[in-house]
Amino acid sequence: MLLRDGTEEDLPALLEIHNDAVRTLKAIWTDRQETLESRRDWFRSRKSAGLPVIVAEDESGQVVGYGSFGPYREKEGYRLTVEHSVYVLPQARGLGAGRLLLERLIELARGQGYHVLVAAIDGENGGSIALHEKCGFKVVGRLPQVGMKFGDWLDLVLMTLVLDDHANPPAGH
Question: In this entry, which stretches build a coiled coil (predicted)?
């Protein structure tokens, strides 16, 4: 499995992965599939803000997953906190791509000086919760029935990873 920075040439694969998750998983709480243009806008917005889009390729060079992080909330008091997403094609799940992508995002968030990485996970997704726990995340809350998809109410599990040991925010922040 190879990890690398995503490029605009990867957008059709990222769109396929994203829309597969919209169609088949409770991970993305929408029924609206994205277009290539909307994925391009998302990608360019991330890149222009200095935010990562990482892809995982299998041995044949096929993009099988991607991960990224972005602002947790827009107000300036949250500026050292980011929320991430990792998605993997069905045939590549359980083969390590998700963990590699998550570990790389943790490394990048630390390197960019962020303090906390947030995961917002469907409460039924035990595999993702377990993966995050293996990577050091802690469950900090469960919001019951705050979402819906496929005719079900969905719980949101919030998990966090504190990325540094700063007792107080750095000066100037």
Answer: none
Superfamily name with CATH number, domain 2-162 = Gcn5-related N-acetyltransferase (GNAT) (3.40.630.30)
The answer to whether the Cα torsion of 96, 111, 173, 53 is positive or negative is negative
Q: What is the pTM of this model?
A: 0.94
> What would the pLDDT profile of 61-115 be if each residue is shown by its tens digit?
999 999 999 999 999 999 999 999 999 999 988 889 999 999 999 999 999 999 9
* CA separation for the pair 11, 155 (Å, rounded): 30
DSSP state of 38: H
